[in-house]
Amino acid sequence: MTTRIDARFAELKKQGRSAFITFLMAGDPDPATSLDIVKALPKAGADIIEIGMPFTDPMADGPAIQAAGLRALKAGMTLRKTLAMVREFRKGDNATPLVLMGYYNPIYIYGVDKFLVDAKSAGVDGLIIVDLPPEEDVELCLPAMQAGLNFIRLATPTTDDKRLPAVLANTSGFVYYVSITGITGSASANTAVVGEAVARIKRHTQLPVCVGFGIRTPEAARGIAENADGAVVGTALVDALAASLDAQGHATAKTVTAVADLVAALAQGVRGAKQAAE
Amino acid sequence: MNPALPNSFRSGPDERGHFGIFGGRFVAETLMPLILDLEKAYADAKADPAFQAEMNGYLKHYVGRPSPLYLAERLTEHLGGAKIYLKREELNHTGSHKVNNVLGQIMVARRMGKKRIIAETGAGQHGVATATLCARFGLECVVYMGAVDVERQQPNVIRMEMLGARVVPVQSGSRTLKDAMNDALRDWVTNVHNTFYCIGTVAGPHPYPMMVRDFQSVIGDETRVQMQEAEGRLPDSLIACIGGGSNAMGLFHPFLDDPGVEIFGVEAAGHGLTQLHAASIAGGRPGVLHGNRTYLLMDDDGQIQDAHSISAGLDYPGIGPEHSWLHETGRVTYLSATDDEALAAFQLLSRLEGIIPALEPAHAIAKVMELAPKRPRDHLMVVNLSGRGDKDIPQVADILRGKKK
Fold this sequence. Notes:
heterodimer, A: alpha/beta, nine-stranded parallel β-sheet, B: alpha/beta, six-stranded mixed β-sheet, globular
């Protein structure tokens, strides 16, 4: 079965370039503005969209993304409304792959089976659940595969060759390589080291390998995209969004464009990468 | 029909770290290789007689074990029922049961070659124990503590700093124990190559709930022997307070397969179960947080709710997974005590026995005050006096003088 994610990577391969993947928190700073931002992303140059599911205790995220989640929750965001947002987005875009990223508890409480049915019908293509390692595949990964959703696994610098096969076993869509040992938005990724890691993972899998954590600028995105099949940017976008808010943390006239402009600049960096590398 | 009960309540967890549906390993991939290493290192240590001998030496000469099992005659007389024994964990070096577990984990960390230790703490007792053992073994120590708890547990903050630890006040979320645990996990993810995370209770990803329980089981093992010596038989009931539940699990575990022993855990009911509280079993349901599935306080969207207890050590929206399983199997009865009940018990024990308890075990004493009068005079009740109240004296004094509340 070909998913939107598979189709997008096939298309990018034809164009000879890497994917630019954006991350933003659903409902940040409020549900309506968040939907407007997501709608603006493909035009600004996002090839794949990751949407965060807000959670009170995001243990692997840094202060920026944690604050984004809390802004969203304060504005009344829930998992149900996140799926509704995806449904709205799909009314105008049936091609851009959409991946939900977050933590397991809200899904567990929603009900795994019901969640998978609702996510699939809303137009979600894949899931990245930070706190579900392969050891807990039976919880959500295997049911998601059966439901026709990609379960995208994180591989990290601590995932050695011995462990990689376990991490890759039930992964589909793409592999998300976390470029640093650390939380989102902390250290910067080292292009050369990441390049070696990507090459190592590619020896174990045919799947596209995308890299995230620690990428903030068009130059950094370009450096990563020279070796990887995609570059993921999250914290930098969340920071741009946060900087556009008023003193009360509410959206302003600049909020959507602040994010879209940065996405456009980063996308240019990624688009230039493969050609520049050759 | 009742579900069939297991042959043994002491055989958990299974090889994947599950107690029934509870437990497990719900952590970021970055941590998984280390957690698997730890599982192996702990299994090796457990099977190594030299490790056990070394630990027993430190338990005796550094911690001061065995802790006494003390017949509280005046409390018994006052309540007019069961014969009440106090397991005096507050007499351990550093003033609580926490040191038993920290000693064990630091010795495992040393075997693994880790030089940097991180910990989270609520009331500060686990932080103090960790800072103490790090000083003893010359290890770097960083303790995460909610900013609210830094404020209300000043004596312990000063103690940790004197011992050479760095205390990091956590400003995120509700700025209490839950958030300290989040930040400790973030530190661990970042510094996984050289850092050992010394978890303070029977929670977190497998093997922590099992490992901490094993290290704390010295409490119950000693109690069995001491009660035999004192009364020639096993106790009739056990009672202990529960935040994460490590002091309780340590007392309970060696008795789980003795059907004649009634077991009670006491959660913090804060302002009351219909208001702000920290009673995860009474007011929560199963969910996934901090590496394990267990009873949690949360809303309908699966968002974790803030807990409240007068006692910083119980102020946590979850509970160890083995407790969740013991609750669902019915082996242990979980009760709760409010802030006011704990305060009353704090004062009663201080005045009657000359023992100032920590606010945490004061919750257990509060339920002893309810249960003991209803039991016959030959009923032997053991309450775990898990910590001493020095750290709480400024806070309780403020409340009793009416400055707060």
